[in-house]
Amino acid sequence: MGVGCCRNPLLLLAVLVLAARLGHFQRWEGFQEKSTSETNMNSTLQFFIEKYNNASNDTYLFQVDKLLQSQMQLTTGVEYMVTVKISRTKCKRNSTTKNSCPIQSKNKLKKSFICDFLMYTVPWMNYYQLWNNSCLEA
Question: Residue 24: CA atoms inside 13 Å, Cβ hemisphere, count?
Fold first, then answer.
């Protein structure tokens, strides 16, 4: 008896369309705007700035100065599309006080960038992967 409904593709199609209209299929929502509160993003931002500083040839370290925009999407983990302002600090690369570095105040040494990055994380496994990033001088 159950095989008969599959023999009529129009009936099967009508049932699938009706089910989709009624919302019985879970849909991926895509990227959703998130509040720009850093509390939800600390580990993601920390991972990004560590990667940036490791790749940079600058004498001084940079730190996230301001979170400008963040969007997230749930997949098999969490994907973030983020825009941040990063600024040069007073701490040199070999500094042991990396966590408490003030932003550079001398005009000659001030430097800031606006960076966009896409990151994939599986927070419950402490896994982070930077997929893409680009920075332009601010």
Answer: 8
> What is the pTM for the complete model shown?
0.74
126: left (phi over 0), alpha (psi -120 to 50) or beta: left
Report pLDDT digits (tens) over 85-131: 999 999 998 877 767 899 999 999 999 999 999 999 988 888 999 99
Q: For the purposes of burial, counting CB atoms within 10 Å of the CB of 39, is it exposed (0-12), middle (13-18) or buried (19 or more)?
A: exposed
Give the angle subtended at the CA of 98 by the CAs of 52 and 71, to the nearest 5°. Answer: 45
Domains in the chain, CATH or no CATH each: 29-92+101-137 (3.10.450.10)
